[in-house]
Design a protein that fits this description.
Helix 7 packs across helix 8. The protein is built from 32 helices and 25 strands. It folds into four domains: 282 residues, Homocysteine-binding-like domain (TIM Barrel), CATH 3.20.20; 275 residues, Dihydropteroate synthase-like (TIM Barrel), CATH 3.20.20.20; 83 residues, Methionine synthase domain (Methyltransferase, Methionine Synthase (B12-binding Domains), Chain A, domain 1), CATH 1.10.1240.10; 122 residues, Rossmann fold, CATH 3.40.50.280. It starts with a helix and ends with a helix. The protein is globular. It is 46% helix and 14% strand. The structure holds (6S)-5,6,7,8-tetrahydrofolate. The site of (6S)-5,6,7,8-tetrahydrofolate (THG) has 19 residues, from strand 13, strand 16, strand 17 and strand 19.
Length: 804
């Protein structure tokens, strides 16, 4: 049988197949039925689709298992069995000449803090599905249409635990710059490449022209074979109210051919494409050679959060890793961490980010702190509020592991030393999670002091890492800054070592800056100058207090002198008004000076999503005799409006929106009894929300419910898969002004019309608003609904106009 691994590196371009859902509908898949269960009942229909794609010239057939995870399938069938059956079916058509990709879509649930699944649960769910695909003989595992980096990571981890097959992950981007949960195409690629994924890709969401923009944004650091599957344009409604994708095969293929220039090796189609689209791809692209992507950006290492990438490299700006979340010498922080409270730590997080730290070190090592519990818990809190990637700093490997399991990106692990067993324990974990790490060249209790000693220890650890198959892109060496007050040559040995790491090993270096000045006065002066000297030798990152203006001045000055701040643009931007008289209070943070850190008002707490602060703030305001109505109308509501505007401007994404909404709810819970008691509260408008019958997607609907409640609506949430009769009956009982309907699939959105018709039959004046990924204005008009929206913020606006 042909080996798919060879296909990953040869010079050819391969063709995937086209859409299944839309195609199966044409062959009798009933509206609302899951294509996977349909496939079990009518395998001959699925087989005929596979055959048509094989005849059209596809090299890779995709299994009919997109919704084949246990939560999607429900209790009717075992996920492993279904996936095996469907994989066998595709295999029987593919034979030995074609490849079979085992399709794995989203589960319909989010991982916490966005949703209610833990990362580990998600991994287990995917393992079951992937095991079935492996049983059935697929050639690769294909994650498709994902929109959450955390879930995508879980899928990759699961695939690696179950099998040794190549893994492809294809993400869907709502806009050229971000997916639904805020990850940019580039950050997605960075995280996946850190995990050594075999193929990165993007599919669905739009036609080839829009998708071209998405993959253009992946390009700077793309080095992995690329898979692209566009829709046949955007969905429209035909005269019979069926969703259609109208982009014809020829223009589809011509537009898709442009993907080659970005590095596409695998090209196929998604929604609305059929065998003719694949045939056209083949005739337009033919035997074109694969143009292997060559990254323009030469970063040595990339650290990512859910949303952001931070590059570490010889041609990149020196990276400050904010050190302040560390209980050493901090009484209040230590005491709080012992009690499991994070107010002080979160304050440090906010302050350091305001000061411009691109990465935060998180260290909770203090007496009587259970790091295994506290470290991941604090990371989760920081992640919920901030975008910056974290550096997980602990000597306890269990704590590091726990934090890694819970992180929605590829964070920095600080650190792996030569302590016996540590590389064996943490090295494979870093590899598995794609987490870059700091290699700390210490073995035993004696610190290497001279450059040659550091080289010797580092060489030994690098050999260990290599034996474990850890890629170089995950390794950054700690240059081990020691104090010059006891060892005058310490800084010079450090600089020699930094140079050696760069010139001999092409490895980036980092160090804990302040160690150097221990025991001396005016430490900031020494630290800043040491930084400059080290940068001259190739230091890439340093752990330090970013709130020091002097340090930032040194850093950004050096960037000009090292020609990394082209035309001194950044420097001029920050320091054009710099005055020598007050070096410690001027310059340094872009737009950040003068801004207060942390939230000072309830308004700010909601905007920033400071869940931990809001309750105390509300109680304090009540103690000060503030009117509950004034708090709601004067602070909370304007804050959530501001959040909505940020969301529309794409400054905020779903995670921030949810964070702010939950913060508001927490504050509101305290005020609610008071508002009700005073009776001054005006009658709330009632809105009945439901996902229509046959559709089990409720992520979008749940978010809309939360936002509507935040804006003062009384929401009756009927859940998912709800028949029109139940919806209308409830609306009558609750005296609702609006019914809100959600559907994700083209097959189920047609059920929205049932509710509209039923209301008309009964002559009821209840407005109907609809939403969901595939809803269009044309569809809304066609079924006679009163309005449609594409996201939670727009839905709130719409609801407000409908009740006016
Ligand atoms: N290498 C690597 N990781 C590290 C270090 C390193 N992690 C820990 C440390 N060194 C870097 N972090 C700190 C954190 C705090 C301080 C110094 C280094 C510090 N604390 C003050 C004190 O102890 O008095 C408190 C001052 C304050 O309030 O900020 O100085 O070398 N890989």
């Amino acid at each position: 049988m042909a080996d798919f691994r060879k296909a990953l590196t040869d010079g050819r371009v391969y063709f995937f197949d086209g859409g299944y859902g839309t195609f199966l509908q044409k062959r009798g898949l009933p509206a609302g039925m899951s294509p996977e269960l349909f496939g079990l009942e009518k395998p001959e229909v699925v087989r005929s689709v596979h055959e048509d794609y094989a005849n059209a010239g596809a090299n890779v057939l995709t299994t009919n298992t997109f919704g084949g995870s246990a939560p999607k399938l429900g209790s009717k069938v075992k996920a492993r069995d279904l996936n095996r059956e469907m994989a066998l079916l595709a295999r029987s058509v593919a034979g030995d000449n074609l490849f079979v990709a085992g399709s794995v879509g989203p589960t319909g649930h989010f991982i916490e803090p966005l949703g209610d699944f833990t990362f580990k649960e998600m991994v287990e769910i995917y393992k079951e599905q992937i095991q079935g695909l492996v049983d059935g003989g697929v050639d690769l595992i294909l994650g498709e249409t994902h929109f959450d980096l955390a879930e995508a990571r879980a899928l990759v981890v699961a695939a690696r635990e179950v099998c040794a097959l190549p893994v492809a992950l294809s993400m869907t981007f709502e806009s050229p710059n971000a997916c639904l949960t805020g990850s940019s195409p580039q950050t997605f690629v960075d995280a996946m490449q850190n995990m050594e994924i075999d193929i990165v890709g993007t599919n669905c969401s739009a036609g080839p022209e829009q998708i071209f923009e998405v993959i253009s944004n992946m390009r700077p650091r793309l080095s992995t074979p690329l898979l692209v599957e566009a829709n046949a344009g955007l969905p429209e409604l035909d005269e019979n109210r069926n969703t259609v994708f109208r982009l014809e095969p020829q223009p589809f293929a011509e537009q898709s051919a442009r993907f080659l220039a970005i590095g596409a090796k695998f090209i196929g189609g998604c929604c609305g494409t059929g065998p003719d689209h694949i045939r056209a791809l083949k005739s337009v692209i033919g035997d074109a050679a694969w143009q292997k992507p060559v990254p323009e950006d030469d970063a040595q290492m990339v650290i990512t959060s859910r949303a952001e990438s931070v590059c570490i490299g010889f041609n990149h700006t020196g990276v400050i890793i904010g050190e302040r979340i560390n209980p050493t010498g901090k009484k209040v922080l230590s005491a709080e961490l012992q009690e499991g409270r994070f107010t002080e730590a979160l304050k440090f997080a906010g302050q350091q980010i305001e000061a411009g730290a691109p990465i935060l070190d998180v260290n909770v090592g203090a007496p009587m702190v259970d790091e295994t519990m506290i470290l991941p818990a604090l990371c989760k809190e920081i992640i919920a509020q901030h975008q910056v990637p974290l550096s997980i700093d602990s000597t306890n490997p269990d704590a590091v592991e726990a934090a890694l399991w819970n992180y929605p990106g590829t964070p920095l692990v600080n650190s792996i030393s030569g302590e016996p067993g540590r590389m064996e324990r943490l090295g494979p974990l870093c590899k598995k999670f794609g987490a870059p790490f700091i290699l700390l060249p210490i073995i035993g209790s004696k610190l290497p002091f001279e450059c040659k000693d550091k080289i010797e220890v580092t060489e030994k650890l690098l050999r260990e890492a290599e034996a474990l198959g850890i890629p170089r892109r995950l390794i950054m060496v700690d240059a081990l800054a020691l104090t010059v007050s006891s060892r005058p040559m310490a800084a010079r040995h450090c600089m020699d070592f930094i140079r050696h790491c760069k010139e001999e090993w092409n490895l980036p270096t980092v160090l804990g800056l302040s160690n150097v000045s221990f025991g001396l006065p005016a430490r900031e002066l020494l630290n800043s100058t040491f930084l400059t000297l080290c940068q001259g030798q190739g230091l890439c990152a340093f752990i330090s207090n970013p709130n020091s203006a002097r340090l930032r001045e040194s850093l950004y000055s050096a960037e000009v002198l090292l020609a990394r701040d082209k035309q001194a643009e950044n420097f001029i931007d920050m320091y054009s008004e710099w005055s020598p008289a007050a070096p410690s209070s001027t310059g340094g943070t872009k737009g950040g000076e003068g801004k207060k850190s942390g939230a000072e008002t309830m308004f700010e707490a909601v905007v920033k999503g400071e869940r931990g602060l809001i309750e105390d703030m509300v109680r304090k305001a009540l103690d000060e005799d503030r009117d509950p109505f004034d708090i709601v109308n004067g602070e909370l509501i304007p804050a959530i409006m501001e959040v909505g505007e940020k969301y529309e401007r794409k400054e905020y994404f779903l995670p921030q929106l949810l964070q702010s909404a939950e913060t508001l709810q927490k504050g509101f819970e305290i005020l609610k009894p008071l508002l009700e008691k005073s009776g001054k509260q005006k009658e709330k408008d009632v809105i009945v929300m439901a996902t229509v019958e046959g559709d089990i997607h409720d992520i979008g609907k749940n978010i809309v419910c939360l936002m509507l409640r935040n804006h003062g609506f009384e929401v009756v949430d009927l859940g998912k898969d709800v028949p029109a009769e139940t919806i209308v009956k409830t609306a009558i009982e609750k005296n609702a002004r609006i019914i809100g309907l959600s559907a994700l699939m083209t097959t189920t959105m047609v059920r929205m019309e049932d509710t509209v018709n039923l209301l008309q039959e009964k002559g009821l004046d209840i407005k109907v608003m609809i939403g969901g990924a595939v809803i269009t204005e044309g569809f809304c008009k066609a079924i006679g609904a009163d309005g449609w929206s594409t996201d939670a913020v727009a839905a709130v606006k719409l609801a407000k106009t409908l009740v006016q």
